[in-house]
Amino acid sequence: MSVSPFALILLSAIKVIWVTGFQESFDMPEAYPSIVVFDKIYYISKVKFVSYTEASKWCSENGGGYPAEIDTAEELAVIEQYAYSTNLRRIFIAGTDAKKDGIFLSQRTGVFIHIFNWVNGEPNNNGRVEDCLELNGSREGRVNDTPCNRASISHNVLCELDLRMLK
Ligand SMILES: [Ca+2]
Ligand SMILES: [Ca+2]
Questions:
Q1: How many angstroms separate the alpha carbon of residue 114 from the centre of ligand 1?
Q2: Residue 116: which of 97, 89, 100, 98 has the closest Cα?
């Protein structure tokens, strides 16, 4: 008997699995240990990016994912906790309000993102240039609007991959 059917049963039976040492294909040296929740895998880059576009490219080229998109309150809670566990200051996730201030859309799908747990006082569109979203790992993983590309501000990136896309 191979071990993989058992692993699949585990994946479907257990809602949250900390993957460290479990799915070696996602133990990337350039990323923090990934987590699997429901049908999604999440991983955070160790590399930092000034540009959201570059961060998004990194997700795609490392594991085949995309910057995490907040679809539900449950998912937000998961990625906040994950961000918090790293204590990283700035971590890009998906969402831009470049077209209309305060209306955040997924860069990848155009879907309206409307579930947030903002850092106190946010979103503030600081300097009128904050058109992207980040999680502040050092502030309980909560959400802040941040520049998409400003030389003085660098971010890690939290990537998401739908495991059902791999089947
Ligand atoms: Ca999502
Ligand atoms: Ca802000």
A1: 12
A2: 97
Give the closest ligand to the alpha carbon of residue 109: 1
**Closest ligand by atom to 75 CA:** 1
Residue 158, phi then psi, degrees to nearest 5: -100, 115
For 73-118, how does the pLDDT look when each residue is reduced to its tens digit (9 = 90+)? 999 999 999 999 999 999 999 999 999 999 999 999 999 999 999 9
What is the DSSP-derived secondary structure letter of residue 45? B
Q: How far apart are the CA of 81 and the centre of ligand 1, in A?
A: 15
Contacts of 46 (CB under 8 A, 6+ apart): 30, 31, 32, 156
Ligand nearest to the CA of 143: 2
